[in-house]
Structure formats: C-alpha cells, structure tokens
Design a protein that fits this description.
The complex is a heterodimer of chains A (182) and B (303).
Chain A (H helix, E strand, L loop, with lengths): L1 H14 E5 L5 E8 L3 E4 L10 E3 L5 E3 L1 E6 L4 E5 L21 E6 L7 E9 L5 E4 L10 E3 L5 E9 L2 E6 H12 L6
Antiparallel strand pairs in A: 1-2, 1-4, 2-3, 3-7, 4-5, 6-7, 8-9, 8-11, 9-10, 10-13, 11-12, 12-13
Chain B lengths: L2 H18 L2 E5 L6 E7 L2 E5 L9 E4 L5 E10 L4 E5 L20 E7 L5 E12 L2 E2 L5 E2 L2 E5 L10 E3 L5 E6 L7 E5 H14 L5 E2 L2 E7 L2 H7 L5 E8 L4 H4 L7 E5 L2 E2 L3 H7 L8 E8 L2 E8 L1 E2 L6
Antiparallel strand pairs in B: 1-2, 1-4, 2-3, 3-6, 4-5, 5-6, 7-8, 7-12, 8-11, 9-10, 11-14, 12-13, 13-14, 15-22, 16-17, 17-18, 18-19, 18-20, 20-21
The chains are: A mainly beta (182), B alpha+beta (303).
Chain lengths: 182, 303
C-alpha cells in the first residue's frame, strides 16, 4: 500500500499546478488537457493573468478564460504542450468510506498529499474526512484509482468540501460551446 | 492505477455499509440529530448529551424513514442513554473491545438526518484500563481515538476495518479527544437501564469532607494513607447512622480499599454493593474502629 501511495503522490504532483493571483495568495490547479487547460476555483483565480508554476518549477503566465463564481470554478489557459493531464473519474458511484487523496499547496507548503475518506455523499458537495488547508483550494480530490472526483474548494467544520467532477465537466462543456461563463 | 489502494477503499466502504445498517439518527434536540446504534433487538444506545428532551424522540432509519422512540433510561455519568424502537432493523454485529490494539484502524460510523451513513477514519490512539468520567461514571476501558468526531457523530459506532462494532463514540466525555465507550460498559449500562430504568447508586446518607491525618495518628494507628474523609453530617436513620456512625468519624478505608478523598468513597458506592454489609474503617477519638454499613440506594431526585 505504501508503494501505491507514493506512486499516487508522484502522479498527482505532475498534474497539480501552483497558482499565484494577486492578493488571493497561493492556490492550486489541475492540468485538464495536455495543451494547457487548467481548472481551479474562482476564489483562487482573481486576476486576468495569474502566474502558473508547474511541478518542474517552470513559471508561466496564464490567461483566465472562464470564471463561475456560483460554482466556484475557473478555467485558465497556459501556452504549453504535452503536459501530463489528470484523468477524470465519476463521483456518483462512490460510497461513504471510499479512499480519497488531495494534492496541493496548503498554507505555504508545496506539493503536499493528504489522505482521507469520503465522509458522506448526499450533498451537492463532496464531503471528505481529510485534513486540508487554504492553499489546497483549486487542487484535485482523487479516488483510489487516482481519477479526479472533485476540486477541493472549502473547509467547513473540519470537513473538506469539493466541487464534484460532474459539475466541472458541465462547466467545461459550457465553455466549449462558447456560452458565456463569468 | 494501483490496486492496494482500491482494495483498501473497498474494505472501508464495505465496513461502513455493513455496520451502517444498524446505525440510526436520533432526533431529540433542535436542528442537529445525534446518532444511535441498534444494539439489541428493539434497543438503541445513544449519547445522553444528545438528548435534550425525554419525550417526542424519533429515530431516522437507514434509508430515511422515521420511527417513534421511547426513552428507556439515561445515565449521564457514562453519557449513555437507551431508547426502545420497533424491532425492524438488523442488530449491530458487536465485537470485543478487548481485541483493540493501539494503531488499529478505527472508523466512526454515524447517521445523518436523512438516514445516510457518514464516516470518519483514524486509528486507535491510546488504550488504558478502567477510568472514571468527569461525571463520575465508571468505564471499563479507556479508548482514545485519533479521528474527527463531526457534528452528529456522538452516539455513533466505533467500527473496525472488518465492520464490527467495538464501542460507542462520544464527544461528551472529553473536551479534547474522541472517546469510545467499550462494549462491556455499554452492555452493563443497557442491562441496568432496561431492568430498572435508571442506574442505581449506592448511598450512605452522610456529608463528607476530605481531611489530612496528622503524622502521629498515622504512625500510632499504622495507617498508610495521608488523609481520610470526615463525616460532617448524618442523615437520621440513614444507612451510615443505622450502623452507629457519628459526626466527626474519619473514614480511612471502605471495603478494604484506602480512601483519601470523597471521590474515592463515591467510586466505591457501586450498584453491586447496594444492600451488602460493607466493612468501613474509621478513626474516632484517636482510635481505630470498624463499622459495618449496609449500603442503601441513593433516593431518586425529582426531575
């Protein structure tokens, strides 16, 4: 199990970016496509041109292309190619107790893995029994297969709250259709 | 990607699913339900501090339907309460808390207001022998958990990775840590509450204060404790008075156990000693004596 966790952490590191955006401080983001589409939280990306730092330390200027404050989602584009990308999964079949992992840059730490379980599944949010801190926002919550099931967004009553991946896919669909997302 | 993680994940969800069939939400306070365990057929145990009323209690079963529940009894000293519900749920698969080891994976399984399972994961953080709660209850084993007890988790089950219930979790017995009451304690309290509707406590009919014994007295009477408790009031015809106790007597041992504080005496007034003649060692006027007190039952306080 140790080896598997280490491998999972390494894979997550490659697909999680740091986002610096004005006074919002440091947040996290998920590489969604090899050509530079990044998904994060609206509350992490507060400026039109956030700075994106890849796992290899490379700093790039990003461009905010869509932002949905209601869902707390944002899409950012960087000029890149052949990036490792996160694999998206589905959150709906998961049961309470399912293993989950979060990756991100909490409170000044970089590339931090958290391990936990799904707490309950009935809400519009995914609720996870996992230790998160503010800089985890925008980063991936993945299942035991390493597939993204949500975007870590908030901490309420000690629980990690994530926007389910289904909502992220809807958001990206509206974006692809050219519907205004703001 | 990696099968050990998937195996682990499946094991936990199975444990939650299996144990969750016997976990209910207990609605006995405003807004936030607590949890309860279907411990025996028709009998639910829950956390006493989650009951803010004695009537109009209901439980939400797994799946979301609601049933009325009647209060069988409550024991604030161990933070346990017992409810009776229609017997239509599977009974919890109860294991042996003695099998717990520090470092064992621990799950707290609770129920939410709509009857779905909620779960928290951690480890058994520390184990120790019997202890007394801040409210005076006797607990057979100290089980400290390193996990989060979220809102509504008190009264839920401590569950092993195999899905067995090994105790009831509560946030009501420690401000800083999650505690589980072991199976033996829950069984004992359930037995007493089902039998009598209350926890009987032993009674002496005295008022006591701790005192320090002078060194000379300790030496002349060969006493091994620094202090005792002095009787400062005596109920007319109470259990102590009937045995010949007098105000000013200093109790130094109770049933062969040394007592140095009023707490020690209270701890020894167990339900098992009610009605039994107990030897009580005292010092009266500088000389040692033994009284035989037949322990009474503490009168019920009107609510």
């Amino acid at each position: 199990m140790n080896t598997a966790l280490i491998a999972a952490a390494e894979a997550l590191k490659q697909v999680t970016v740091q986002i610096h955006s004005g006074r919002a401080g440091v947040g996290s983001g998920v590489i969604w496509s090899g050509d530079g589409l990044i998904v994060s939280n609206a509350h992490v990306v507060r400026s039109p041109y956030p700075e994106i730092i890849l796992a290899n330390g490379k700093r790039l200027k990003g461009t905010l292309i869509a932002r949905d404050k209601q869902q707390d989602l944002a899409a950012v584009r960087i000029e890149a190619s052949h990036l490792d990308t996160a694999q998206s999964g589905t959150s709906t079949p998961l049961k309470p107790g399912s293993l989950v992992m979060a990756f991100g840059h909490p409170l000044g730490a970089t590339n931090a893995l958290s391990l936990g379980i799904l707490h309950r599944t009935t809400e519009a949010w995914l609720q996870a029994d996992i230790r998160l801190a503010p800089g985890n926002s925008g980063g991936p919550l993945v299942d035991a297969q390493g597939h993204v099931i949500g975007i870590n967004t908030a901490i309420v009553g000690g629980l990690g709250l994530a926007v389910p991946v289904e909502a992220v896919l809807q958001f990206l669909k509206r974006l692809a259709l050219g519907q205004a997302v703001a | 990607m990696t099968s050990p993680l998937i195996d682990f994940s499946n094991r936990i969800t199975e444990a939650v699913e299996q144990s969750g069939k016997a976990i209910v939400a207990v609605n006995a306070r405003q807004r936030f339900p607590s949890s309860g365990i279907h411990w025996r057929p028709g009998i639910v145990v829950t956390a006493d501090h989650g009951l803010k009323r004695d009537e109009e209690i209901s439980v939400t079963l797994p799946g979301g339907s609601t049933r009325g529940a009647t209060l069988v009894g409550r024991d604030p000293s161990t933070d346990l309460a017992v409810l009776r519900i229609p017997n239509e749920l599977p009974v919890a698969d109860i294991g042996d808390s003695q099998s717990l080891r520090v470092g064992s994976l621990a799950l707290a399984v609770a129920s939410t207001d709509n009857g779905n399972s909620a779960v928290s994961m951690g480890v058994i953080s520390a184990l120790a022998g019997s202890w007394r709660t801040w409210r005076g209850g006797q607990v057979d084993q100290l089980i400290r958990l390193d996990l989060n007890l979220y809102s509504g988790f008190s009264g839920g089950a401590l569950v092993s990775a195999e899905g067995q219930v090994l105790g009831m979790v509560t946030a009501g017995l420690s401000r800083s840590t999650a505690i589980a009451l072991p199976v033996a304690t829950v069984n004992r309290v359930v037995d007493q509450l089902v039998q009598k509707g209350r926890i009987a406590r032993g009674y002496l009919g005295v008022g006591m204060q701790p005192v320090r014994l002078p060194e000379s007295l300790k030496q002349s009477l060969n006493l091994n404790s620094d202090g005792g408790v002095i009787l400062v009031s005596l109920e007319n015809d109470g259990p102590a008075a009937r045995s010949g106790a007098m105000i000013g007597d200093i109790v130094v041992a109770f049933d062969s156990e040394t007592v140095g504080d009023t707490e020690d005496v209270l701890a020894l007034l167990t339900p098992e000693r009610i009605g039994m003649p107990i030897p009580v060692a005292i010092v009266r006027g500088g000389t040692a004596a033994i009284l035989t007190i037949t322990i009474g039952e503490r009168p019920r306080r009107e609510r």
